[in-house]
Specification:
Largest sheet of chain B: 3 strands, mixed
Shape of chain A: globular
Helix content of chain B: 25-40%
Low-confidence stretches of chain B: none
Distance between the termini of chain A: 62 Å
Structural class of chain A: mainly alpha
Order of helices and strands of chain A: HHHHHHHHHHHHHHHHHHHHHH
Radius of gyration of chain B: 17 Å
Helix content of chain A: over 70%
Largest sheet of chain A: none
Mean pLDDT of chain A: 89
Largest interface: A-B, 27 and 17 residues
Shape of chain B: globular
Number of helices of chain A: 22
Oligomer: heterodimer
């Protein structure tokens, strides 16, 4: 009897010890993730260092083991991003992006409303098919040149493009990092599903937002007539004529975009499309493979890798399940309410900590909320919330940080507040449109 | 053979000198970079031809590859040059690594390769001695008799 009591006590003590240890690890996982998010939001260090540091801390502390860490990495997302980076890097030397931006400016003939609409639509469309961060890196320097020639302030023009890139990127699977993350996580959602379900609302939102921005900036962006005439006299085809391999390079780019449209029919993953496109591009357009691969933003890929491991840690510890259960309780299981909470919550979260880490954390939460039965409406709510929310603050999307970085390097600093004043109202308008769309057609 | 054996040009400019004075010195000294020094001859940084290029022409040109269509009169180049002309060179200099007079030429060649600079300041203690350019180093090497 005595021996049995001692044995039972020891078992109870072991169970209690395990509970304490597991509670501590659970809390550590939450703390590491929260600190990493704060560090990203306040720009305490380079984002890749933060993400890899957080991931390393979780593995070392034992939040998740090595095998679980490797399993948590979303390789298709990394493949898609790397492939698109190579494709765009090798397309850029053709001068086609300079041509398109200059042509759009010439068509506006010095009319500020037309200029805002054309630059917004051009950036939106480029973002949809190349991804918004890349598009911004391509078009902002050209926009600075255009503003210089027209003698108009560059900041409003660049802000128009940043806001348009985040909205335009919402339209496709490859347009914005949150969509790339969603598309890679849920293979049920094809490139065409994104186009059919998100492109119409993104297009409508882009037009409404362009109209608002044109109204706000109409007086500041009016060039002197002689400056408008000067830009009309430039020949944007000159660089295009002088560049090498233009036709071949553009053929591969267009072929890759067509393959994205058909990937569902062909049963090929988007990441495979991007990587095959990049490989063909290397054969067709790269004289120096080392140089071409050098343009892949390895730090961005490692940033994603670190995030995947950190979120994997939250999943392993059950944090994600707890958040999902809390949200389900909050919404009383109502699908409409869940969709709205995901939409507005993702936008708010993205505004505070950047939409890439926020979406990465939300993927398993949405999976948990939807349960066994696949529900695309909730995924569209996440995509719209995270992508549109990317416009709210300067740190909400990578494209915002990149564009304002280029502006600052050229002596045009944009403060956090200056961005907020225009970005937040635009985000609220965009989310109201998204709310109406989801309620009418998805939820 | 140490750097002290070379005839190094005193290509330097005071930190308070204007950009226009710095460019004039750069042009006259025929080296791709100047040492920016303080009143005690201490090196504060370097001002290279590329730094000057970025100061006098729009910064966004470094991010665009295609400007053949653009005539000079299209962009307000003169305004930019006027704004930069009288600013002190310290606004445009960059930090630089330093070579020491006792360093070997092979070490200097290795540092020039890895730093990406076309010229580096050479110091004796913390006092500026002269600028070592790639051309000067290679010229000295090629002029040296075999086996010397």
């Amino acid at each position: 009897m005595l021996i049995a009591d001692v044995s039972a006590d020891a078992t109870l003590q072991r169970c209690a010890f395990r509970r304490i240890v597991s509670t501590r690890v659970y809390l550590l996982a939450v703390v590491i993730f929260a600190v990493a998010l704060s560090a990203l939001a306040f720009d305490w260090a380079h984002r890749t260092k933060i993400a890899l540091g957080g991931a390393a801390a979780m593995v070392v502390i034992g939040v998740l083991d090595q095998e679980q860490a490797i399993e948590a990495i979303d390789w298709p997302t990394l493949g898609l991003l790397a492939g698109m980076m190579v494709i765009v890097a090798l397309t850029e030397p053709t001068g086609v992006f300079t041509y398109v931006a200059l042509k759009a400016t010439q068509i506006s003939r010095g009319n500020p409303v037309a200029l805002v609409f054309l630059l917004a639509v051009m950036t939106g469309v480029l973002s949809a098919f190349l991804d918004n961060l890349t598009s911004i890196l391509l078009v902002v320097p050209i926009t600075l040149l255009i503003a210089d020639i027209l003698r108009i302030p560059p900041i409003p023009l660049v802000l128009v493009q940043v806001l348009a890139s985040n909205i335009g990127g919402t339209a496709t699977l490859i347009g914005d990092p949150p969509n790339i993350l969603i598309g890679s996580r849920r293979p049920e959602l094809s490139f065409m599903d994104f186009i059919v379900n998100l492109a119409p609302v993104a297009t409508f939102t882009l037009l409404v937002v362009s109209a608002l921005l044109a109204f706000v900036y109409r007086s500041r962006l009016r060039p002197a007539p002689e400056r408008a005439r000067q830009i009309e006299s430039l020949d944007p085809t000159r660089d295009l004529r002088e560049a090498k391999k233009v036709k071949r390079t553009l053929a591969v780019l267009l072929g890759t975009i067509v393959a994205f449209f058909l990937h569902g029919l062909l049963h090929i993953e988007p990441s495979v499309v991007a990587l095959v496109g990049a490989t063909v591009m290397l054969f067709v357009a790269a004289d120096d493979v080392e140089d071409a691969l050098g343009r892949v933003e390895w730090s961005t890929l490692l940033f994603f890798l670190g995030l995947f491991v950190m979120v994997g840690g939250l999943v392993e510890q059950g944090v994600v399940t707890d958040v999902a259960e809390w949200l389900t309780d909050l919404t009383d299981g109502s699908r409409t309410a869940e969709g709205m909470v995901i939409l507005w919550g993702s936008a708010a979260g993205s505004a505070m900590v950047d939409n890439i880490p926020f979406t990465t954390a939300m993927l398993p939460v949405v999976e948990s909320i939807q349960g066994e039965e696949f529900d695309d409406g909730l995924w569209w709510a996440l995509a719209l919330g995270a992508c549109f929310g990317g416009n709210a603050t300067l740190i909400a999307a990578a494209a915002n940080v990149a564009a304002t970085g280029i502006l600052e390097r050229t002596g045009n600093r944009v403060s956090f507040f200056q961005f907020l004043v225009i970005g937040l109202p635009i985000t609220i308008v965009s989310l109201l449109i998204a709310t109406a769309y989801l309620l009418l057609f998805q939820l | 053979m140490a750097l002290s054996d070379l005839d190094l040009p005193d290509a330097s400019v005071l930190e308070t000198a204007s950009l226009a004075e710095g460019v004039a010195e750069l042009f006259a000294a025929r080296v791709p970079g100047l040492a920016v020094i303080d009143a005690s001859d201490r090196v504060l940084g370097v001002l290279s031809e590329r730094d000057v290029l970025r100061a006098v022409f729009p910064g966004y040109l470094a991010e665009i590859r295609h400007t053949a269509f653009l005539p000079d009169e299209a962009s307000p180049l003169e305004e930019l040059a006027v704004r930069a002309r009288d600013r002190p060179v310290r606004d445009f200099m960059r930090p630089s690594e330093l070579l020491r007079v006792q360093d070997s030429q092979i070490h200097a060649a290795e540092r020039l390769m890895h730093s990406g600079e076309d010229a580096l300041p050479v110091v004796d203690g913390d006092r500026f001695v002269g600028m070592l350019s790639v051309a000067a180093l290679c010229h000295a090497r090629l002029d040296r008799p075999p086996g010397a």
